[in-house]
Amino acid sequence: MKRINNSVLVLSLLAGMMYTHAQEKKQLSLDEAVQLGIQNSKSLKIDAAKIEEATADLLEAKNRQLPELKVSASYLYLPLKPNVDIRLPGVSGAGGPEVHQVAYGSANLSIPIYSGGRIKYGIQSAKYLVEASKLSTENDKVAIAYNVAQAYNNLFKANQSIKVLEENLSASQKRDETFLKLENNGVIARNDRLKANLQTSNIELQLLEAQNNYNIANINMDLLLGLPENTEIEVDQQYITEADDVKTVDFYLNEARENRKDLQALDQQRKAAELGTKSAKAENLPSIAFTSGYVAADIPKFLTIYNAVNVGVGVSYNLSNLWKENSALKQSKAREMQLSATNEMMNDNIKLEVNREYQNSDYSKKRIAVFEKAAVQANENYRITKNKYDNGLATMTELLDADAAQIAANVGVINAKADAALAYRKLLQTTGTLTIK
After folding, report:
1. Residues 6 or more apart from 391 whose CB is under 8 A from it?
2. Distance between CA atoms of residues 213 and 161, nearest Å
């Protein structure tokens, strides 16, 4: 049974070595990983398209203040002789000239003078919406930065667990060799040696699980960063030392009010909605424009017109506004109410998020001290138990239990430190200050 277990382990390690050899290794710090994640984010590409769309809307709004120049021309052929009845003093009304073709053209120029403010409000509103789109993109960048940090944290924890388990597996295998010799010499019972072998097998299973978790975390990171799926990422071993001292919760609440991009984007949307209401009110006002035109026509043997230029002022007013309710105004006011309520809800959510992540960050830091204390106790307990076992004062079960507790405690310290670093970054995300270098 032992030979089979060893064979399986050897084959697994060889397969892992071959897989690792086929992979391209890339060492990345967390900040480098975040930068790559932002550069290759598909969601940010969608955001970029939304900014382009909002910019196009702004251009359309600006175009409304520019002159409108329209030119038209037509040529008509008349296959049948038309009836021409001219009723002018001194001119015969029947038997007029034969008309077989008509050509005419016109040019019309219109320059807006007054539109009730609709053009001005439309331009300013479009500017606010462009800014809102940009701020939403910045908010998404912060979210991506945290997502990458979370994936990096999982990769780091899996990597560190593998190292601890490999060290313990090596020590456990050496212990198995010693116990086999002791069994052959009749010093210990076969049952005790099998208990030790079982402990080794459990460590092997834990190691396989940790390697599986690492491979999954590595593939997830490759996808997030836009790297080839066979790229093995080597994490920065100093990652767990990056967390700074946590300040008071009021400090982070003020930071969130000043730096949350989603809150700022909502503020821009509210400004745009206010202008939308003003623009809707302006629908009840007339429009005034300077107009100019040119007309030319040619009907052979009958009529020719050139240089027919006109200049004037045009007034446009929709009389139906007198009895129709302004639905656009009601829609715009409803939009303002929605955004106002959304703003209040978002402020409440920000308070909750900051307080929650502040508590989580504080809790994560306190866990480190507890795990470190537990690791010291577990290591000392194993040392004492090992000494007692060597002197015949402790059982094999007690020794193996102490060894398992030691492994769990040491892994727990690493995980607690990594979780604390991630919790601090989550706190920074909720305040909108998660740095992207």
Report:
1. none
2. 10
Residue 104, strand partner residues: 74, 297
- Cross-strand partners of 77: 101
Strand duo 231-235 + 24-28: pairing: parallel
Helices 396-431, 190-225: axis angle to 10 degrees equals: 20
Separation CA 410–CA 165 (nearest Å): 10
Question: β-strand 101-114 against 68-77: which pairing, if any?
Answer: antiparallel
First to last CA, the chain: 54
At 198-207, the pLDDT tens digits run: 888 998 998 9
- In a 3-state reduction of DSSP, which class is residue 40? coil
What's the Cα-to-Cα distance from 124 to each of 111, 265, 276, 299, rounded to whole Å? Answer: 20, 15, 10, 50
Long-range contacts of range 18-24, CB-CB < 8 Å, 24 or more positions apart? 20/232, 22/230, 23/230, 23/231, 23/232, 24/228, 24/230, 24/231, 24/232
Residue 403 to residues 6, 252, 390: CA-CA distances in angstroms? Answer: 21, 43, 14
For residue 246, give both structure tokens: 């946590």
Residue-wise pLDDT for 265-288, tens only, equals 999 999 999 999 998 888 888 888
With beta carbons less than 8 A apart as the criterion, state whether 319 and 305 touch: no
pLDDT value of residue 400: 85
Residue 248 to residues 242, 243, 354: CA-CA distances in angstroms? 19, 15, 11
**Sequence-separated (6 or more) residues with CB below 8 Å from residue 376:** none
Q: What is the pTM of this model?
A: 0.78
Task: Give one DSSP letter per residue of 105-121, joined into a string.
Answer: EEEEEEEEEE-TTHHHH
Is-contact 83 99, C-beta < 8 A? no
Residue (of 436, 311, 419, 408) closest to 365 by Cα position: 419
At position 73, the amino acid (one-letter code) is A
pLDDT at 262 over 90: yes
**Burial class of residue 130, CB neighbours in 10 A (0-12, 13-18, 19+):** buried
- Mean pLDDT, range 240-259, rounded to an integer: 84
